[in-house]
């Protein structure tokens, strides 16, 4: 407050030090005001001292009396016929503006009765009404005395903007009652409602909502009203869309960075086909940005609440490798966004139904991460595309009905690629092959990698599994392989789907079917 009072002007200080007492100067009055000495003020005024000369910062005795909130001196000054009540200090502030700033209702009331200009702004075009929003009683008396309810300040903000920013619900309601423009565009192109969204102030959103004419306004930083609603968890997302808010990919991404399952469901179901086809609308973005709980919720929403056109676009633009990445992350405790196997199964089958291509890389990931599971069994009855990777062993021998253990072992050992592959997956795949085949070529290949110091945590793992295998293939293994060879040759089969469909329809015991379909392991 002392800073508001200011210092006497240089001229006044010089005259005082020289012993010159100009009756027109108010240095004595200002001193008396600072000392709050009404008797001295009255005496000085009676001898001709002016009440309208100011400090160098422009504050007059009336400004100072308001700053000090000395009602007795304030009323005395206001009662003087020659008092100037609209004088502005160096910042453009009138006595009324300061009375409003300090919340002095009685001072405001008396200044208005005396004829103070209710709309004189200070240098930044902030009017008394802008300044009054934290004091509803003062705002009300200003409005009743002609305050411009939609005056704009240097930021283009109205008093309503200020009331929203300061969370003054009573003033907001008052301004709306007296006709304030709820759709006024202010600083950064924000409307009052957008400010309420930004502040997460649901009470003020409630007050403003029915006054909004346009929910498509976009801020200078390209946030639409709807994006702000999503980012700040407003309960009005769905109603805004019903009233014309345009849903865009930006709103979809906001649901990812500011997760809310209900908002995601609403936004997803209101995206256009072009929006769904956008590169940012994909499963991997969900997987990389969401935690486990939110990711599982979002995937469930996509599967259960999307219409067929959305599913078709998502499935056809999702690569098999993308699905493979989801499977890998779901089987790795390092990731927080893993899906349970039943959800993975449901998702992959749905995606395949709507046009995602089944590729060998996906089959491989399913096998090494989930084993011979129900999903793997279902895929046996589907056609796939692409050639197999040279390091895929067990799933390839199961799916590729023309594959051969000898040929695969030769391909594995003739390429110098072993340093670049995922060793965990290769170990899982290679060791699992011992459950189905006892082939000396396979054993030699195992020793080959063991000797090459292919480290998956030690070479002993291979050798331990080899020790429990019989010396020669069992009759059951030989019979299984010869039966498949016979069926494939007799009926000129070219795909796994043909072979496994035929086996599934054979009138034989279920245990034999499981052996022919590799569901039942031969070696433990």
Can you tag this structure with a few keywords?
524 residues, 0% strand, Serine Threonine Protein Phosphatase 5, Tetratricopeptide repeat, 4 domains
Mind explaining what this structure looks like?
There is one protein chain. By secondary structure, the protein is mainly α. The protein is rod-shaped and about 130 Å long. It is 55% helix and 0% strand. It contains 34 helices and no strands. It has four domains: 1-117, Serine Threonine Protein Phosphatase 5, Tetratricopeptide repeat, CATH 1.25.40; 147-246, Ankyrin repeat-containing domain (Serine Threonine Protein Phosphatase 5, Tetratricopeptide repeat, Alpha Horseshoe), CATH 1.25.40; 247-364; 394-516, no CATH class. The longest helix is centred in the last third of the chain and has 16 residues, at 475-490.
Layout of secondary structure:
Layout: H1 2-5, H2 10-17, H3 27-34, H4 38-46, H5 61-67, H6 71-78, H7 95-101, H8 105-113, H9 128-131, H10 136-144, H11 159-165, H12 169-177, H13 192-198, H14 202-208, H15 225-231, H16 237-242, H17 249-257, H18 261-268, H19 273-276, H20 283-289, H21 292-305, H22 308-317, H23 320-330, H24 341-353, H25 360-370, H26 374-379, H27 394-399, H28 405-414, H29 423-433, H30 440-451, H31 460-467, H32 475-490, H33 496-505, H34 510-516
Helix pairs in contact: 3-4, 5-6, 6-8, 7-8, 8-10, 11-12, 11-13, 12-14, 13-14, 13-15, 15-17, 17-18, 18-21, 21-24, 22-24, 23-25, 25-29, 28-30, 30-31
């Amino acid at each position: 407050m002392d800073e508001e009072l200011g210092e006497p002007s240089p001229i006044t200080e010089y005259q005082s030090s020289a012993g010159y007492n100009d009756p027109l100067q108010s240095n004595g009055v200002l001193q008396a005001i600072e000392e709050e000495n009404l008797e001295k003020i009255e005496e000085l005024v009676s001898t001709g001292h002016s009440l309208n000369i100011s400090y160098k910062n422009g504050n007059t005795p009336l400004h100072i009396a308001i700053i000090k909130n000395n009602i007795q001196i304030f009323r005395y000054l206001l009662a003087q016929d020659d008092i100037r009540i609209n004088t502005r200090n160096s910042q453009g502030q009138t006595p009324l503006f300061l009375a409003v700033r300090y919340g002095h209702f009685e001072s405001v009331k008396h200044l208005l009765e005396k004829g103070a200009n209710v709309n004189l702004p200070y240098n930044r075009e902030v009017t008394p009404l802008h300044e009054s929003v934290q004091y509803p009683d003062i705002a009300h008396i200003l409005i009743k005395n002609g305050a411009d309810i939609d005056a704009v300040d240097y930021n283009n903000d109205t008093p309503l903007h200020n009331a929203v920013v300061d969370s003054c619900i009573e003033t907001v309601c008052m301004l709306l009652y007296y006709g304030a423009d709820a759709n006024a565009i202010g600083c950064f192109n924000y409307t009052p409602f957008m400010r309420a969204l930004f502040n997460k102030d649901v009470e003020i959103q409630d007050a403003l909502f029915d006054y909004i004419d346009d929910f498509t306004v976009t801020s200078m930083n390209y946030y639409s009203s709807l994006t702000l609603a999503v980012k700040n968890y407003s309960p009005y997302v769905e109603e805004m869309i019903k009233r014309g808010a345009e849903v865009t990919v930006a709103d979809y991404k906001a649901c990812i960075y500011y997760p809310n399952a209900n908002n995601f469901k609403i936004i997803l179901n209101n995206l256009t086909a072009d929006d769904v086809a956008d590169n940012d609308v994909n499963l991997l973005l969900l997987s990389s940005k969401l935690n486990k709980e939110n990711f599982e919720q979002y995937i469930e929403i996509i599967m259960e609440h999307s219409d067929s056109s959305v599913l078709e676009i998502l499935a056809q633009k999702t690569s098999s490798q993308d699905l493979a990445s989801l499977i890998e992350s779901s089987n790795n405790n390092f990731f927080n966004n893993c899906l349970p196997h039943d959800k993975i199964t449901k998702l992959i089958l749905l995606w395949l139904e709507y046009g995602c291509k089944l590729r060998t890389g996906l089959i491989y990931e399913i096998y090494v991460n989930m084993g011979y599971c129900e999903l793997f069994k279902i895929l046996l009855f589907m056609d796939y595309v692409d050639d197999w990777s040279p390091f895929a062993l067990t799933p390839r021998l199961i799916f590729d009905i023309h594959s051969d253990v000898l040929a695969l072992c030769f391909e594995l050992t003739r390429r110098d690629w072993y340093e670049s592959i995922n060793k965990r997956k290769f170990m899982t795949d290679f060791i699992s092959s011992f459950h189905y085949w006892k082939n000396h070529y396979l054993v030699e290949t195992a020793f080959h990698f063991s000797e090459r110091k292919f480290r998956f945590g030690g070479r002993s793992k291979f050798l331990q599994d080899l020790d429990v295998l019989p010396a020669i293939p069992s009759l059951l293994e030989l019979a299984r392989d010869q039966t498949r060879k016979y069926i494939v040759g007799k009926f000129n089969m070219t795909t796994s789907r043909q072979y496994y469909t035929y086996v599934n329809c054979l009138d034989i015991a279920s245990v034999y079917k499981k052996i022919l379909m590799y569901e039942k392991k031969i070696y433990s």
